[in-house]
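INFO batch 0412 | record 1 of 1 | parsing
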Amino acid sequence: MEEGVVNEILQGPLRDVFDSKQLITDISGSGNNWAVGHKVFGSRYQEQIVEKLRKAAEHCDCLQCFFIIHSMGGGTGSGLGTFLLKVLEDEFPEVYRFVTSIYPSSEDDVITSPYNIILAMKELSEHADCVLPIDNQSLFDIISKINLMVNSGKLGSVVKPNSLVTSSAGALKKRQEKPFDAMNNIVANLLLNLTSSARFEGSLNMDLNEISMNLVPFPQLHYLVSSLTPLYTLADVHIPPRRLDQMFSDAFSKDHQLIRADPKHSLYLACALMVRGNVQLSDLRRNIERLKPSLQFVSWNQEGWKTSLCAVPPVGHSHSLLALANNTCVKPTFIELRERFMRLYKKKAHLHHYLRVEGMEESCFTQALSSLSTLIEEYDQLDATKSMPMPDVPRLSIAV
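INFO prediction complete | emitting tokens
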């Protein structure tokens, strides 16, 4: 909703990636206000959005899902982004809706972001099929670690000139500067790995609708923690490739998660492993058996693994792995977001900016807060089963 942002893309190196007929812009932006994005721009551009969606959908032989890529802290991403989700549900009810949501770091410069996030999360819980929450802080930490590795010269690592983990001047990014290209690169590669089965041959393909079907046992609990290894997938850094088994171990370590979370010490509802490159099914099974004892799955889904093998690796690598975990480790992030929301809401600070928007009432805030609290309670109930002893289920014996 800010014309300048889109114009910048159209004048840059990515201009040919986008169909200019499919772009919708406004001039003013949403002013970091969810209500403006959702209520004002949503109704203003609904018809145009639906028309362009239908036009794009008509070109598809087999429409599998919609991806929404948005940020949660501002007004357009959170407000119009979640309005779009509802439009997709109404217009294409049978098509899965995958949402990649970028959550701001604690150093966020948008004062009203706690309101925008909680208002948007109610919509995500109600209208998305799968949400991949990604934390800006995690992306920044990962890039900082890569820079540190390169600076220290560990593992014989070398940065290619003009690579995404270097600045345009060719020198490494300073710590305080946010290397947005490199951060975006990680998210782009997450989406590339997620869609690899649809684009390449493999001995064990996984359609996008299978992810939702296998990883989401309860409709509201559709927040999937993603981890990617190796993290510098476009071969920006010449670091010797990780051994295959090490790659599987990395995917479950907290340093490789794209949200600040530690899934190993929380409860798994289900987990998907999407592998690319020259990897055999036996390698997959061996690593699952090796990792299983250190991971805690819910008692009713001990075999909750979904796997896929794609023969084509990412550029510059022999193999890669994307892990998607439905895990209770997202709960602390949601609790922290609720606390940030309450600090503002208790004082009714900045509320008038939202309430002056037509169709916006204070009940929108209380309902959004209630929705998040219900979500946290559901994770609490699952966590409470973590320490319970595992029942020894007798195997079914078949008489021949």
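INFO post-check: The two ends are 68 Å apart (CA to CA).
INFO record closed
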